[in-house]
Amino acid sequence: MAAENQLLRSTPEELGIASASVLTFLEAVERQGLELHGFMLLRHGRVAAEGWWAPYGPRQPHMLFSLSKSFTSTAVGFAVSEDRLSLDDSVIGFFPEAVPDGPVDPLLAAMRVKHLLTMSAGHAKPIMGAEWRRTDGDWVRYFLQRPMDHQPGSRFVYNSGATYMLSAIVQKATGQRLLDYLQPRLFQPLGIDVAGWDSCPSGIDAGGWGLSLRTEDLARFGQFYLQRGMWDGRQLLPASWVAEATARQIGNGSADGRDPLSDSQQGYGYQFWRSRHGAYRADGAFGQLCLVMPKQSAVIAIHGGLSNMQAVLRLVWEHLLPAMGDGPLPRDEQSQTMLLRKLRSLNMLPPQAQSHSAVAAQVSGRRYMVEDNADGVQSVLFDFGADGCTFTLSDYRGEHRIRCGIGEWQEGGTTMSGRSLHHQYEPPALRVAASGTWHDADTYVMTWCFVETPFTDTVICRFYDDRLVLERSVNVNSESRERPPLHGKQA
């Protein structure tokens, strides 16, 4: 990363923020049981505070889910500024080969690029990412064949399919995949390394999801927008586009009107959400957040495993917003020391009960054959040692292992299956950090943190003589958070 791309660090007080208030925010997060994985607070372009809850860390990319949408919007902004396309362009004009046979629905013919940007394409029901990922065919054709219900532009209906179509349009208009198009225009200038972007079977980047970035990359993106498209003295994206994209373009409140206390009902721009207190944000499922606060010249970047983003935003408004003064504050070495100590000790390690049990020697190395089950699990095996346990699971996909530490995280790679618990995601390989503890003499509990995702699985193993009951659950998911128990017997 080029030296000019380094974000500078300062103390909170130098940037007009009370360290004690940042500490209070972190304590409130933990007290309310809100699972954050990474946190960065920037003000005036400098980092005031940053921390990661082990086993998560600053160098790990983390799935963004729908926060990816704001990057797709940015690509559209570049394409518009280069006269590659217009917000008034007809959507079906880009894909005549995919238009349904017969007379064209007038509502479909009226759909424009701007309607995709503002989530007002005209559908009553959305197409979400989990549905797309189960679709093997032509996603563009799938979208265009969806029945239209409303005049485009008239109603806000959140729709990941609309963002996918924006990605397809950028690819049609520029001749480049979305990621390739953004590399020299956004990612490289900002010093952001992107390994890839999930794509559809046709090779079009998903657009509405599929990016994984570090917490600092989110902070850079937010700072780029705070600076109205300028970076390192260069105007990369027109300031007029930034203003338009982050302004309220359409209402997204309930039928009863806007809820003044809900950040989800403050209006929607071009794939950006309006928030309270004059702020706006890019966000994604399960606690991925890039919050831009222009009035305070501040940016907050968060990765997490959350089911309630509003709870975190509420704490931001309660603790961090009032802590931001108009100028530097007097030094507060005691509070700064306490804050640094807190930031350096953040950890998700669950409470440790017992490090060993006599049962371990009785079950170690013994394979348990599992009764027929919905997950296709065939057998499991535990290999206990002085420094932990290697857990092996065999299913319809093959054999998968996870190594668990004792009182600490053991990091490594795994192919462990988990689609049903992980929002329909099942990559061929995953980074995992795992730890195990004996809750009692007969109950071994494993915690698996898939550190490039929001997902943390808890696996409870109850041993009864030669039998086993295994229960697996997850911290967050769009569907059920628990799988049916597995029942096994020693072979």
UniProtKB/TrEMBL annotation:
<protein>
    <submittedName>
        <fullName>Class C beta-lactamase-related serine hydrolase</fullName>
    </submittedName>
</protein>
<feature type="domain" description="Beta-lactamase-related">
    <location>
        <begin position="39"/>
        <end position="302"/>
    </location>
</feature>
<dbReference type="Pfam" id="PF00144">
    <property type="entry name" value="Beta-lactamase"/>
</dbReference>
<keyword id="KW-0378">Hydrolase</keyword>
<dbReference type="GO" id="GO:0016787">
    <property type="term" value="F:hydrolase activity"/>
</dbReference>
<dbReference type="InterPro" id="IPR012338">
    <property type="entry name" value="Beta-lactam/transpept-like"/>
</dbReference>
<dbReference type="InterPro" id="IPR050789">
    <property type="entry name" value="Diverse_Enzym_Activities"/>
</dbReference>
<dbReference type="InterPro" id="IPR001466">
    <property type="entry name" value="Beta-lactam-related"/>
</dbReference>
